[in-house]
Amino acid sequence: MSPALADPALIGVDCTHCGLPVLPGDVAPDADHQFCCSGCRTAWALISASGLSAYYAAEDRRRTPVRHSGRRYDEFDHPAFHRLYVQAIAGGLLETELYLDGVHCASCVWLVEQVPLVIPGAVRAELNVPRSLARVQWDPAQTSLAAIARFLEQLGYPSHPFRGGRADQRRRAEDRAMLVRIGVAGAIAINVMTVALALYAGWFGAMDPGYVRYFRWISLGLTVPAIVWPGRVFFASAWGALRARRIHMDVPIAIALGAGFIRGAANTVTDTGPVYFDGVVTLIFLLLVGRYLQQRAQRAAADSAELLHGLTPSTARLVVAEAIQEVPSESLVPGAVIEVRAGDSIPSDGRIVVGRSTVDRSLLTGESMPVPAEPGDLVYAGTLNTGATIRVQVTESGEATRLGRLLLELEASMGRRAPVVNTADRLAGWFVAAVLLLAGLTYVVWLRIDPAVALDNAIALLIVTCPCALALATPLTVTVAVGRAAKSGILIRGADALEVLARPATMLLDKTGTLTEGRLQLMTWRGDEALKPAILALEAHSNHPVARAFEAAWPAEPRPVATAARQTLGGGLTGSVDGVDFAVGAPAFVLAQALDPDNLGQSVPAHLTPVLVAAAGIVRGAAGFGDPIRPDTTAALASLRRLGWRIGILSGDAQGVVDVVAESLGVPAAEARGGATPEAKLAEVERQLAHGAVVMVGDGVNDAPAIGRASVGIGVRGGAEACLAAADVFLARSGLTPLVALMAGSERTLRVIRRNIAISVGYNLIGAGLAVTGVINPLIAAIMMPVSSVTVVLMAWRSETFRTEP
Amino acid sequence: MTILFILVPVALGVVLISVGAFVWATRKGQFDDLETPALRVLRDDTEGPDQTR
Predict the structure, then answer these.
(1) A743-774, pLDDT tens digit by residue?
(2) What ipTM, to 2 d.p.?
(3) For residue B4, which residues of chain A lie inside 8 Å, CB to CB?
(4) Which residues of B fall within a CB distance of 8 Å from A106?
(5) Is the pTM higher than 0.80?
(6) Residue of chain B whose alpha carbon sits nearest to that of A180
(7) Which one of A46, A372, A552, B45 has the fewest beta carbons within 10 angstroms of its own beta carbon?
């Protein structure tokens, strides 16, 4: 027994498991460990019985109570699941990757990776923290994946199968290949530069011609692998573009690299003229680095696409001969009958065969209220069954569902988006080609004026105009800006978005969840104060959003117990509190059983959802529910208009509701469109794109195709993962204020990029002028060359692109 | 300065070895996840489950 607990003042005792205070009544004075609830006691018993109590020694473990969903994970052992996600590996073992919820920190790594030591037959568990992916290997003869998943869930990590395995392997291979190319190009570039330095130094002293030849051959030998290995990507890409009869930025780069290399090689063999090898390999290296920086940001964003699949549950409860089997939802075939419990997401499209319920379709349509669903009605995958248990006959599953098609549409629309050509890449290629031409001219012209310095001047030109600064200007500035923006809660995926956002154009915003809070709130209330406790008593029997809104509006009211409470789907609640019969619900439902002498039913404004309250057959109260506008919306829209943006609303909610919001925000009625399906939103964005850039801001899956198609798509906090995956920019702080910071920051970033390009081009022009006229020699050029790179790097780091918010 | 004819190839040999090591490490996935190993090392004090079970 610990002496501290013998103290009579037991207040302030913390739960051993979760660290929350234990209520004095629950403190067991003689026990070594105290728990706030039986859940924590169970979790503690499990962790210590598994011998993992070192978890409690970890200081940074999360301090939130572990929640258990009680899932059995039976579908993880289903043959269909194994066909989809499990690979057999050497030694008769099986391997799969699981996506874990709630992975944060070092303790998680430790806890998850102890699994093999606790579960006999689990061979290996390896966690990748940034991606929340656990690779698990097990012996099917000794244990099952379901057992491992149940154990992980008990530790607090509910798991899903990782559905992007193949695409992920391909991406990983691409990432590695890119890194290898950079490594090889970097090593070669440094060595060729070293050799080149020796050669340049040799121009002044009397370097023995034998050594000169020797060094030139060495740099040729080093450059060949740089061209055929890391440099090959530019040639392959240029060749592909030419075959498709298009010109893109890799074409001039490939020409410059090829011409520089061939001329240099020819000069090496004939022992005349300059070799361009140092410029060629440095260019390969720096262009690859710039591309890697951009690609890495995109890769991180692409990871979130995996979360798309989290929209539909991985499990379905299949009804087979009146018994329930948990199966992977991918394995459902049309015609199968599944059970969907109240509160669960629907795993596939289908028709209700048994049961009446309400379905929250906001994910697909943006409607703020659940709609009633009866036998024969169609329900869609990804929507939420909020009412009662129903049975659904599957019509479509997996990618064929409406949600699946929407996501495919989203991928396709992202592919259709015209790429914004990176200014610096585009410039760098032509720049190099121009420099090569100029160098050739300089050599020829000086050959007539003064043959002795012709070669020197041509070389000085090549060195001083090395486009390193140009190649670095954009990626570096963007990387710095993106990092700064992330610190202030704006996650950006790359240069393209910044370039578009810097020029004000058309901005379309979704209403529900973007301009508004996205949840129902009590807006007006007329009636007796004394009714409130009775309403709360009845609403305790419902999980309808109206019930939640009543509870949120009156948190301090007492809550008596209602008897004989009954919920009528699509109608409301009846029941009796303290002997008085009450009815709460939609006007049609309440007025069917009560009189309304004061005409309270007419008192609720038309754009709000009315709820009437009747006591003993007389309507006594009327509540109006609506989705309130976020507090910062008005100010943010005003700032955006000042920056020059044309604002429009594109919502799936009813036109009447949209009009009211538009009016209060000062958006002209012509620019406020309601009742738009996801397909209609996409069409509207496409129509507007004909007149210029369109920025789409939204939060839901119903916005995702439009976000994917828009010039730049922006997802707001609290949005669906599909919307985040489609978005180029994600605002991690709630509200629209970050939107204003984003636009202003983009404008500043583009200014810094332009300034950097101007500096490097201007520097190169001056240098080129000096070299062409023979003012500087190769050594001075070699000293001047890095100065421009350093300037650009410093300018990028110092740039005030995004201000870190407090 | 004839020594250069030996030293330069030797230096290039060293480069070849280190590039080879880098390529090998990349292909083995050493650079795939740069975060988790740093966390893993923090928790190596105890050898698996408590010995006092």
Answers:
(1) 888 888 888 888 888 888 888 888 888 888 87
(2) 0.83
(3) 211, 214
(4) 39-40, 42-43
(5) no
(6) B23
(7) B45
